[in-house]
Every structure is written in structure tokens, then in C-alpha cells.
């Protein structure tokens, strides 16, 4: 890791507490200069699932004009355009199947990316190269290598990049982190991340013909081309290594990010262990249903424990999805995206508590208008670090052994096999570029 990257990490912790159709890489387009009354023109890329909330979130902001939506499935795309027109007094959105056409449009200021995981980094990097500011869903990367490339691209092209971990914009959770920084629960040495979500049997639908209206080549993008299957198009790609990262890399990114934010760690751990597997369903999922991971920071004397459970389970401290932070003088519980409570001393006396959210989309737009990347609550470094923590846990599971990691080089120590999981073979022309 060079000194510039180390500095950016320190700044990240400090500041976040409170193509061309011809298949070439997009050229850089000068950023807009926004005035007080200007509206930011936004395109949403990927509108099947999470992208619907992006459409709603940006459409609710007075200084934003949603102009384009993009999806390789034309059936979904046209349905969303029709729904938008019905909801917003007949306003018509431009529709595109190929995100590279969106990046060619010089009138678009920012893009919001809600594609499957395997597209996140490449779509965001191409957007930065095309002069667009970027809101990118979690996880910001599908593997560790491309997460680092995204950080480099954001800085090189001077783009505002917001990672879609909206808990960073919660007023309550900002207050919770402030309490931990100020010593409310003493020396905070451990964080637990919990993802107890109901994940049923998905069956095995086998191979079938590509549905009419779906550009399957575009949908596959940088991933290995495999025969089409409803096992992964459109939602269950989460549970296949070619496209997703399991639940630690899905819902879990909110919690991995909260763990790192709350503990105040600004680098990757040195020791990683994971165990788990598929114990319930004999279905098409490849990723583990159950996963328990430990991430140790020996120099900082801190540890992150993370657990994914898929079915019947108790909650811990009232938490099914969230975090628990342990300190020498008490513990702090984070429930969901906007609520925390504290328990102090041996008697677990109730301490400060608060429930209040925030507007992550507005925070992004405010930073775009101000042309100030430091204003975003979830800067590009979180896309690399929080996502990367999940990747490390998955690699320990896939290799089946305890791993030692060097945070400076971002490589495993003496383990060539584990290092092969840090990147992937990209399918041309959907290749993550070197940023020089």
C-alpha cells in the first residue's frame, strides 16, 4: 500500500465519524458547475430490485431530475418506465439497455448503480472515467482487487462516490459512533455483525433458454459466461460465486461497514477464520447458508465477529440484523439502520438511546452540487473496506483454513491459493481497467 492510500484511509475515518458503445472505455467529460438553483440530472442503472428505491429516492429530491433508467432486461425496463409515468404525471424517462450509452450522454451528471454485485465496480469505474459522479450500491466490489481500482478511479477522476450503506446517514448512528469515540462504553475492543435473515430453499431450476427481451451478454458482463438459468436471474444470483457474495456480501455489508466504523479501524485485519456451509437445503445455492467469521486486528487489539444465519434462530440482545459493540465499561446495540441503545456497567444500566434516520441520497446530491467528495457520509473507501472484509471472510471459508493477511500489500501472506480469490478473470470487453 502506498502512502497516498494510507493517507486516504486516515482521512476516511476522520471525515466519516460524524463508453462508448463501440466497447471502448468512456472518455472523460468535464464535470458540471452547479449553481444554487441547478438540478442534478441522474440516471439509475439496474431497476429490477434495489433500483426501484433509487428511483424513488432521487425523484423525491427537489434539486434532482431523474432523466434515464437503464437495464439489460427490456421487459423490466419498460415496466419501470410505465410505472414512473403513471406515478409522476405522465413524465417519460429515457430508457437504455446498455449502460455505456448512458455514459455517452453528456447531459447526465450522476449515475446510481443498482446492478448485481459483479457489475458494481466496473460500472462505477466507467462512470468515473466518463465524468459522472456515482452512487453505487453495496457491496462496492465483487472482489478485493476491483474495490481498490474503484478507490483509485474516484480519486484520479475527482468524482464524488457514495457507497450505498445508508446507515452512515442515520443521525442516530452518527451519534452512537460519537459516543464510542468519546468513551461512553470504555475501550471498544469487539464488534459483532449479525445477519439473521429468512432465506428459503430456492430449488434448482436448471438450464433454459434466454428469455426474450433480456440481453444476457450485458447482464453477464465481466463475469464468466454460463448457460442461462433462472437459478440466478434475477434475484438468486446473490447465492452464486460468479455474480454474488452470499449474505455476508449482501445484507452483511451494512453490518461489516458498521463494525469497522464503530471500532474505528481503517484497514483490513491480519487474521481471518471462517466456518459454515449448507445444512438446510439441497438447492442450487453455492454460497454458505450459515457462516461464522472472525477478523482479528492484533496491533489494535480489536476483533470483529460476524455471523450469518438463514432460518430459525433466536436474536442476540434484541438484534437479528445489526451490530453489538463491546467495551470495557458497557456495550452498545445497533438495530437495523437507524436505532441504537446502550447498557452501562456490570448492572447493564440503560444509557443513551436514539432512533433517527437520514437521507443518503440527499447527502450524495449535496456533495455533487458542492463538488466536495468529503461531504459524503459513505465515501469510496467504505466501498472497498466494508466489501473487502466480506470478501476476506468468504475466502477463508472457501479455502477452509485460517488465513494471514497483509493490509499494506492487500495480499495473503505465503498463500498463493488464497490470493487467487482476490481477483477474477474478466470477460472482454467488460474488463476492470488499470488506473494509472
From TrEMBL:
List the PROSITE patterns hit by this protein, alphabetically: TAT
Outline the extent of the Gfo/Idh/MocA-like oxidoreductase N-terminal domain.
Answer: 40-164
Q: Name one GO molecular function term.
A: nucleotide binding
Gfo/Idh/MocA-like oxidoreductase bacterial type C-terminal domain boundaries: 207-267, 360-431
Which InterPro entries does the record cross-reference, listed alphabetically? Gfo/Idh/MocA-like_OxRdtase_N, Gfo/Idh/MocA_oxidrdct_glycsds, Gfo/Idh/MocA_OxRdtase_bact_C, NAD(P)-bd_dom_sf, TAT_signal
Protein name (database record)? Gfo/Idh/MocA family oxidoreductase
Amino acid at each position: 500500500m502506498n502512502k497516498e492510500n494510507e493517507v486516504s484511509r486516515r482521512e476516511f475515518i476522520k471525515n466519516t465519524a460524524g463508453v462508448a458503445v463501440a466497447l471502448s472505455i468512456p472518455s472523460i467529460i468535464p464535470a458540471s458547475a452547479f449553481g444554487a438553483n441547478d438540478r442534478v440530472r441522474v440516471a439509475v442503472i439496474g431497476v429490477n430490485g434495489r433500483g426501484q428505491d433509487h428511483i424513488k429516492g432521487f425523484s423525491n429530491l427537489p434539486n434532482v431530475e431523474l432523466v434515464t433508467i437503464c437495464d439489460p432486461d427490456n421487459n423490466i425496463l419498460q415496466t419501470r418506465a410505465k410505472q414512473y409515468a403513471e406515478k409522476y404525471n405522465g413524465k417519460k424517462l429515457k430508457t437504455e439497455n446498455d449502460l455505456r450509452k448512458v455514459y455517452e450522454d453528456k447531459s447526465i451528471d450522476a449515475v446510481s448503480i443498482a446492478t448485481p454485485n459483479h457489475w458494481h465496480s466496473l460500472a462505477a469505474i466507467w462512470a468515473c472515467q466518463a465524468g459522472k459522479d456515482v452512487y453505487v450500491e453495496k457491496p462496492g466490489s465483487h472482489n478485493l482487487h476491483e474495490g481498490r481500482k474503484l478507490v483509485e478511479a474516484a480519486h484520479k477522476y475527482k468524482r464524488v462516490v457514495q457507497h450505498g450503506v445508508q446507515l452512515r446517514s442515520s443521525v442516530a448512528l452518527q451519534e452512537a459512533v460519537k459516543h464510542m469515540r468519546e468513551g461512553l462504553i470504555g475501550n471498544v475492543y469487539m464488534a459483532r455483525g449479525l445477519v439473521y435473515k429468512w432465506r428459503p430453499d430456492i430449488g434448482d431450476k436448471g438450464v433454459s433458454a434466454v428469455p426474450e427481451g433480456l440481453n444476457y451478454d450485458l447482464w453477464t458482463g465481466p463475469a464468466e459466461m454460463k448457460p442461462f438459468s433462472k437459478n440466478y436471474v434475477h434475484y438468486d444470483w446473490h447465492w452464486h460465486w460468479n455474480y454474488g457474495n452470499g449474505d455476508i456480501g449482501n445484507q452483511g455489508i451494512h453490518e461489516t461497514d458498521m463494525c469497522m466504523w464503530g471500532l474505528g479501524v481503517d484497514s483490513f485485519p491480519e487474521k481471518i477464520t471462517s466456518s459454515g456451509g449448507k445444512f438446510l437445503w439441497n438447492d442450487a445455492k453455492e454460497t454458505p447458508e450459515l457462516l461464522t467469521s472472525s477478523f482479528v486486528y492484533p496491533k489494535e487489539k480489536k476483533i470483529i465477529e460476524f455471523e450469518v444465519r438463514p432460518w430459525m434462530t433466536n436474536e442476540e440482545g434484541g438484534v437479528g440484523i445489526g451490530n453489538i459493540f463491546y467495551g470495557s465499561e458497557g456495550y452498545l446495540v445497533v438495530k437495523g439502520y437507524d436505532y441504537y441503545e446502550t447498557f452501562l456497567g456490570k448492572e447493564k444500566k440503560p444509557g443513551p438511546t436514539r432512533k433517527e434516520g437520514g437521507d443518503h441520497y440527499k447527502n450524495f446530491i449535496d456533495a455533487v452540487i458542492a463538488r466536495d467528495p468529503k461531504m459524503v457520509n459513505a465515501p469510496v473507501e467504505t466501498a472497498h473496506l466494508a466489501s473487502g472484509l466480506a470478501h476476506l471472510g468468504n475466502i477463508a471459508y472457501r479455502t477452509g483454513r485460517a488465513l494471514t493477511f497483509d493490509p499494506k500489500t492487500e495480499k495473503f501472506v505465503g498463500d498463493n491459493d488464497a490470493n487467487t480469490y482476490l481477483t477474477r478473470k474478466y470477460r472482454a470487453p467488460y474488463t476492470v481497467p488499470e488506473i494509472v
